[in-house]
Every structure is written in structure tokens, then in C-alpha cells.
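Record type: monomer structure entry
Structure origin: computed from sequence
Chain ID: A
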Amino acid sequence: MPDDVRSRFAPVAANYSRSTFHAGKRGLEEVVDLAEPKPGELALDVATGTGNAAFALAAVCGRVAGLDLTPEMLAEARRIAAERSIANVDWVLADAEALPFPDGTFDIYMVRAAPHHFPNLEQSLREAARVIKPGGRACFIDCAPPAAARDVLHGVEVGRDPSHVRSRTVDEWTQVLGEAGLVVEHADQREVDWDHDDWMNNMAVPAEQRPALAAMVEAATGPAREQLRPERREGMLWHAYWHCLIRARKPWS
């Protein structure tokens, strides 16, 4: 799976530095609101991609480590950091399931729009719990559709990007975080008005594949259709999408 992730994201790295969701002001404000960073704190942004969340945290924290599997993503992040004269972020090539840091290193663990790619989410959460300090925050922003919509969107997700593994509902997130020894203190689901074509653009999905993926959404029936609410606006497909915003803490003992 790591090689599959690299092969999928390497050619499209630059797209994620200007993606509406990944680099947009509202989404980055959510990162800061969720993590509650403080001056002098040390933060880890896992699956940092082109560094969007890392840069948002670096504006407040003392220092941030931005970690990713894909060298091309980190190269783009380094370029942007140099362009913006951001000097308090270090870039680390590594896997979320085997973090190269000692126990209790970070005040904040952040991962955004990535856990649905993790082949072993449970192991990555154990690593999150290991590397944050007692009392530290572990923050997660990821796709989290209700179950019926997820069943439809799973086929779209895999067709768009075969490195997709599974989206989890907020209740499922709460369960797996508890099993990893983290205490959930905030768990919310945010519905988004989703530009389907913009979503396809991020991964440079070939034009000939797009109609079939759009058709999966438009063919939804029953509860899934009620949740997705697909519609055409000036010929372009829009539908509902969902993200979870979860903050958990590592117990003091």
C-alpha cells in the first residue's frame, strides 16, 4: 500500500497545494480551531501532503513536523515553505504506521484527509497515542459519510483513487480511538456541498472515467440518495459529502 499511495499522489502533488478543500481558508481555520495550538507547542502533521495543515499549525506552534510517504509531496511543501519564509516546519519521509519519534514527543497530533488511505488504521492510532504526551491532543479530519451514502461513495472513491481503503462514520471513529487508548472529547460531522468535478481534478482522473463515477452518485436510491442529494448545476454534478472533526486526548495515566 505505501508504494500504491506514492504512485498515486506523486504525479498530482502540486494539485494539493491549491485544492479548494486542502488549501482553502475555511478548512485551515478548522485545523486550528480543532487542534487549539499554543505558542511553544510541538505538533506533528501526519500525511501532511503539501503541508497545508502544517503551515496553519506553524503560525501558532513553536515547531511542527510534517510527515508524509511521498517525496514529491514533501518537495512541494518545502518549496512553499521557502516561498513563504516559514522556518519552523521540519519535513519527514515516513509512514503513519511506524512513526520515527520517541514516546511522548508531541503536544498535538494532526491528520487530515488521509486516514481513509491507511491500510491499518488501528496501528496508526496506536502510533498516534504513543508519540503524543500525556494530556496531548490527537486531531482527525477525514471523510465520514453516513453509512448508506458511504456504500455508494466507496465505489466512487476507489474508482477515483485505488489507494482508498475505507471511510468511517463518526461512531466508528469513536470506537477505534477508544480502543487505541485515546479519549474522545469532541466528535462532529460536517456536511459539505461537494463539487464532484473539482474532486476528480485533484487526482487528475481521466476524462473518459469520470462519467461512470458521476453515474454512481446519480444512480443512488433510497436513504443513500436522500443523503447525497445529487444535482446538476450548469451541467456539473454537485452532491453532499461529509467530514468528521474529532479531537481526542491521551490520558495522563
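Annotation 1: The radius of gyration is 18 Å.
Annotation 2: The beta strands are 42-46, 63-68, 89-93, 106-112, 132-143, 183-195, 231-233, 236-249.
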